## 1
Amino acid sequence: MKPIWIVDDDQSIRFVLEKALLREELPTRSFTNPREVLQALDAGGDDDGPQILVSDIRMPGGSGLDLLTKVKERLPGLPVIIMTAFSDLDSAVSAFQGGAFEYLPKPFDLPKAIELIRRAVEESQREEVAEERMAAAPEMLGQAPAMQDVFRAIGRLSQSNVTVMITGESGSGKELVARALHKHSPRANGPFVAINTAAIPKDLLESELFGHERGAFTGAQTMRRGRFEQAEGGTLFLDEIGDMPFDLQTRLLRVLSDGHFYRVGGHSAVKANVRVIAATHQDLEQRVKEGAFREDLFHRLNVIRLRLPALRERREDVPMLARHFLQQSAKQLGVEPKRISDAALARLSNFAFPGNVRQLENICHWLTVMAPAQLVEPKDLPPEVAPHAIEAAPVRHVAPAAESPETAPAEAQGPSVAAIVPAATAAQKNGHSSWESGLEAEALELLASGRHDVWEELTKRFESKLILTALANTRGRRIEAAQKLGIGRNTITRKIQELGLE
């Protein structure tokens, strides 16, 4: 990781931060004035620059605010934390609206300062990963006519700053389209900031969007810049706009109308130079009719509408996407890429993909971890795609002890798996889940065999499959897998040991 650069003429401040960050295993490099920082950037280049920059405002040899402006010209994505005495607060707040990640009032509480720095580091690393993925892979893949229409629309909008509304089902790639619109726009050198309005509680969303002033509400100990300010000069992507609370829709309409907004608890208007791209999977016209979405906001957002097709509408793209995701997953996990047979690709192409491209990507991650051989066959596909537990289950007849299987009458043999298959297929056609039908077939088979550990056997297999699938989905991160499964960290660790999944 790149070092954290600390700029302060006060040796005690530098010393305290250096030692505290060293304990956190975060590398540092210190400077006494802005001139030294600019010289270091000139000497080393952008690749040898800082992970984040922590700078005081008032120093001999230059202002920290001037340094902020110059650094942002060279490294627009670099998080910068400004340290300021309370007497400098007003000038700091007004001066660094266009760039600082956050500010740190002096005297500061050291644990809170380290927490803020770590948050800035995590934000920087997330941006680096996103940029690497964007650079390493094509922006979007698709040969289907519906996707070619989307690509042409992105090209036509490349020199425009017009507001765009992207519609499409969940998982169809709406954020990718938004990023492509930003990348090919006049604002490409500015930040791209995304926020899912449905994922943030209503009482926090206003502060998240517009920021808040110090003391605006309980717990607001410092001024905080919202997403609109973070996206200054760039693009703000509002995902799932249809779920935005009605009262916040009014505030958003005001920003789109006159380009100004107020922070929560603030009295001074802040100018917003931001292009807004919105997205939703909902029918906004219907939401307007129901009174859940403002009609005037709908028309403000709906200047240009791009409809993103569902994956089932572009089945010819499935083989290309599947191979791409298998390559991508193998690279992330550091393993040899799996190959996929034509028969397995045909099965994937005929699947409806209710989760669209995101679901296909998750399936490819699952196959990279779970498929037993290097060549993926139809039988290796996950149950929701290939219900092979039903299709390939062996027919096993169980006869009474006095008779052999060959001589036992059909009615004495009990229910067989063969008898279940037509019913399971019918259930699947009627909308019932294929894995439940497969479980029923497997349970009947075990029960008919006379075993007395059916519960233990099926529970063990169910838990193993569930945990392995969750781990594949989270690239092996146990804590995240436990959170997604709704179980505790200790529980998933214990289960992995008990089930022999290490």
## 2
Amino acid sequence: MLNVWVVDDDASIRWVLERALKQGGMSTTLFEESEAVLSALRRDEPDVLVTDIRMPGRSGLQLLEEIRAKRPRLPVIVMTAHSDLDSAVAAYQGGAFEYLPKPFDIDQAIELVRRAASPGQRADPTAAESRRIPEMLGHAPAMQEVFRAIGRLSRSSMTVLITGESGTGKELVARALHRHSPRAAKAFIALNTSAFTADLLESELFGHEKGAFTGATELRRGRFEQADGGTLFLDEIGDMPFDLQTRLLRVLADGQFYRVGGHNPMKSNVRVIAATHQDLEQRVKAGGFREDLFHRLNVIRLRLPALRERTEDIAPLARFFLQKSARELGVEGKRLTDAAIARLVVFDYPGNVRQLENICHWLTVMAPAQLVDAKDLPPELQPQTVARPDASPRAVAVESEAPMAVRGDAAATLAPVATAATAAPADGVGASAGAPAWLDGLEQRARALLQSGEPMVWDTLTREFEAQLIRSALEMTRGRRIEAAHKLGIGRNTITRKIQELGLDEK
């Protein structure tokens, strides 16, 4: 039977893990703080230790450091409710077996404990400083995978290919990979390969000798020489001219190159991190990108999620950017109302994080008051007002601020409508002007039930409403219940109970 020690100052976490581990056939020993663990380790040793990071006294990371010194083969799983890059990198660099952000799925945690205890698993000790990158904070599972990858790569200099839409923060990730690597003390050089013509790009990359071409009045060191011992970040690698791809491949293969106009081979020890918003596999098939270079770059691939895939991170990012903008301009930081945050969260962000940052700069300058309301947001975030083609000029329909995908029986309740109700109710009561359009559909459904003599109108509509909310959240998170619960603002147990009550598992 596996013996698992759990360290957390939160009694509820200890209670949940104790029962889950016992149901999984494991024995448990519970601790409230690190000192008791270190004392117990003098007499005994578990198969796996699970610890929180932030606790009174010694933190989980300090405990991890002590364990690495005294019990280097003991697998340690680090839990934290502060799901940021700092925590992930510090955990991995401290030698943790795995990093587990809260809230976590119990089944996932149990499986992780079993993997940690399996033969051959071992975490090597190390120590390093990590610095905070607020722009990369994120609770979204996709961002947690990015944090984990940066942590796992923190002791290596492997080539990395970063993919993702424009504005998702690819250079931020590249800088984090460099900063948390053995090359951190050396230079980080960034170059956007799409910003130069082929001839200029060759000179930028490899440098040139004096007199190599008209205007080359002196010797110039290229980016490979400047980044020697450090990291070279090649952004938009998919736009690199085909002939230069051949030269880049040669450098990646043996670290050797020639300056433009030069005859003496140069050597450079550089870690290359490349990034692109394009589909390189398709570029290879179309003949625009060398297949051998693609495989040389595609050693480790990190995909950055679009901002619309991590909506839970929009509010904290917006607050951070507002404070950052205020510091830069020397003014008091603006604050967001709940209505403004709700509008920000449902926006699509084709420009991703970069667009959100620009919106916050705009608000810092243009918003009339310190408290920013939905009406103060820039025009692209305002609901569109569209005239009905078959209506009088004064009759308009207001686009839903947060349209929902609908399926099943709830379609009649929540389907967004393209036009306003064709006729006002006899008693003059209806959805107020400017209200989200789906309320018209809700009103029609409610009236139909009331007129039919349905005895349980309230319960019927409530069930349909809750079912549609949960369906939409599960569809958006591809069935991940914990993530869906987080998006809805309810607990994991609540969404599980509701799914059972509403019979959604059967659909």
## 3
Amino acid sequence: MLSYTIRRLLGAIPTLLILIGFAFFLIRAAPGGPFDRERTLLPEIEANLRAAYHLDEPLYQQFGRYVWRLLHFDFGPSFQYRDYTVTELITAGFPVSLTLGLCAIVVAFLVGVTAGCIAALRQNSRIDHGVMAVAMTGISIPNFVMAPLLVLVFAVTLRWLPAGGLGDGSIRNLVLPVTSLALPQIAYLSRLTRGSMIEVLRSNFVRTARAQGLPAWQIVVRHALKPALLPVVSYLGPATAAVITGSVVIEQIFGVPGLGRYFVAGALNRDYTLVMGVVVFYGVLIIAFNILVDLAYAWLDPKVRYR
């Protein structure tokens, strides 16, 4: 297992380099620059600023300099937030995005797997059709549509929950953004769990367990659940990274000071180092979650061995 993990980590290096190169040259191909303002700077001042940030060098030289900084875990200074480095901004914003993402994925896993198991055990019943209908609705409605609806109902009309912001960090402030992030994942996980559980329940070892007179709950929990979770785990790794990194819209709607807001502000203001820092950080995060998914396979399925 250790040798496989090391090989996967080494194999991720070329992927990360391709991601860095693509993002580096793509953002510089966009029109505008970090020092474009409504009030035009004097040519001498702009030239001095470009020289100070090495933007007057050829692109290949800037790219080499940036990769060299990354090797020393230095994301560089922010062009927009002059008193902060990109590392400081990531350190400040990522815990908020991580909290929202992990809470959403935990809620989605618990609710989605439970609903999928119930639908599988009651296949072709009204409960099954109802769960799948709700799941299809959740898949069809994006979270940037669902979030304002939740605000309208629970914050504006009923006044049960705050409409935005983190406030003092209480659970009440997290309910709406976490729910908005979790609803689409609940829909996907319930459908995946249902299909996988139905297939497992038709397996020979489940028939043997039933023939031995084991209760239904014991068959599901002790025998069928782990193999049924294999496709769920395959989806859960990239989905966790996607929820954590894809909370940009939700953070904007609810006014949450997460990393997504910095990314949007950096993209709008052509803050090259900030955008690159967030892209690289999220790229490492997605690669790490995919490796964790592969390692989780060996725990869920004893037949899986990595050599």
